[in-house]
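Backbone-to-sequence.
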């Protein structure tokens, strides 16, 4: 039964870190003035209550990992660090000027690229520069991504002293053949070292990122990877499906034979064995692709119904305004999205001219806002409802009609203006959300733009 459903529903689809998804933003975009107005509106509504989130994109990596879909710049030259940080701080200064008063930061995340490409001294300069123009709210969540091969104890201690309490390390897989194929060779001892250092220093939450569906990966290698993970028992695990999109990411993802990739049911079996092993270790499945121990803030957010999803993935904190700083970063004002230019040189040039460097965006209309809320509910809680008129729109009802087949397959239930996804339906959550994706339904893609849903 499940094999047949996987074959039936394993189609290309978005991961829904936003709605509308980036390929379906309005072609006319969002004007510079409207974007700033949108930010200020959201800031004025939320700064005194929930505060705002910051995402800072640090794009540099010393080596190209061929599985990676991030916007990055490969270099071994570390003289790029200071000019880039100065530009990020200038961009933040421009946003603070728009707000007109000190932002109150509730959440801050350093992503990449490889944030730990930067020296401890430069990371300190960056965070202190952000703080000088801001106020940090009580009990904030400051987090960063680290490469186990390129993270020192000094960097960990420096970031902890600056208020960081959570980190995540990209592990992907411990099998040497898999690591060699994706050009990400990192011994278990390196992951063990940074994990133990983090615990000694006092980090409250340590996460490991694992990927299933990688080339040369099989049932034996995934089991060994999880047994190795068991030895370290991180507080949180992100267990992502490998997104094979070489038509977008180019030469890196074309560096191996596609026949080496686990397909359909074989790929799903890797996830199922991982899920079972994580459950046996005491992890609880959260949303899509995430597992957490019960002491972790992400689990508590599920229990308290405060879990949120945005361009940074799942978060235990919800803020209406998320400002993205750095090359390629995406900002979210709730009413609109805007993405920065995608090259370091253009980013530094435009910010140097005193302009926030957005190059595309989207202004959400009333239908977008309603559907976004339902998709967010499904991605975070696996349920949604529409009892109030403000929760209804004609495309919601069209989407519910499209879900009749999913309901017939016993993956969900629609009853009394409520939609509940069953346990067996959770692996198809992207397919369920696609039924509510009005913009994609009106303009179905004719070329490959998304990875497979399962």
């Amino acid at each position: 039964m499940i094999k047949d459903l996987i074959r039936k529903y394993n189609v290309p689809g978005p991961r829904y870190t936003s709605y509308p998804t980036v390929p379906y933003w309005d072609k006319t975009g969002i004007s510079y003035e409207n974007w700033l107005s949108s930010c200020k509106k959201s800031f004025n509504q939320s700064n005194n209550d929930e505060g705002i989130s910051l995402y800072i994109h640090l794009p540099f990596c010393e080596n190209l990992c061929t599985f990676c879909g991030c916007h990055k710049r490969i270099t071994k030259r570390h003289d790029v660090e200071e000019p880039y940080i100065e530009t990020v701080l200038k961009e933040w200064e421009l946003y603070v000027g728009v707000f007109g008063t000190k932002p109150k930061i509730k959440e801050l995340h350093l992503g990449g690229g490889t944030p730990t490409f930067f020296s401890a001294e430069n990371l300190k300069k960056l965070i202190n520069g952000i703080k000088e123009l801001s106020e940090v709210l009580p009990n904030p969540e400051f987090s960063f991504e680290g490469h186990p091969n390129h993270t020192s104890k000094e960097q960990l201690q420096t970031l902890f002293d600056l208020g960081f309490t959570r980190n995540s390390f990209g592990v992907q897989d411990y099998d040497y053949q898999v690591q060699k194929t994706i050009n990400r060779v990192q011994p278990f001892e390196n992951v063990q070292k940074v994990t133990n250092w983090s615990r000694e220093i006092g980090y409250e939450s340590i996460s490991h990122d694992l990927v299933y569906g990688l080339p040369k990966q099989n049932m034996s290698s995934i089991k060994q990877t999880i047994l190795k993970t068991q030895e370290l028992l991180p507080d949180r695990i992100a267990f992502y499906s490998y997104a094979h999109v070489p038509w977008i990411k180019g030469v890196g993802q074309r560096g191996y034979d596609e026949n080496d990739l686990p397909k359909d049911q074989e790929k799903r079996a890797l996830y199922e064995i991982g899920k079972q092993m994580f459950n046996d270790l005491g992890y609880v499945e959260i949303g899509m692709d995430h597992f957490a121990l019960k002491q972790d803030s992400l689990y508590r957010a599920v229990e308290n119904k405060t879990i949120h999803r945005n361009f940074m993935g799942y978060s235990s904190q919800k803020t209406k305004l998320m400002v993205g700083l750095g090359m390629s970063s995406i900002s979210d004002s709730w009413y609109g999205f805007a993405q920065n230019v995608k090259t370091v040189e253009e980013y530094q040039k435009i910010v140097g001219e005193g302009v926030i460097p957005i190059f595309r965006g989207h202004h959400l209309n009333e239908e977008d806002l309603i559907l976004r809320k339902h998709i967010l509910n499904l991605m975070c809680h696996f349920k949604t409802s529409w009892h109030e008129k403000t929760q209804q729109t004609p495309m919601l009802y069209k989407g519910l009609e499209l879900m009749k087949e999913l309901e017939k397959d016993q993956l969900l239930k629609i009853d009394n203006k409520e939609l509940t996804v069953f346990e067996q339906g959770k692996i198809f959550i992207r397919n369920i959300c696609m039924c509510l994706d009005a913009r994609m339904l009106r303009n179905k893609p004719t070329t490959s733009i998304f990875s497979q849903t399962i």
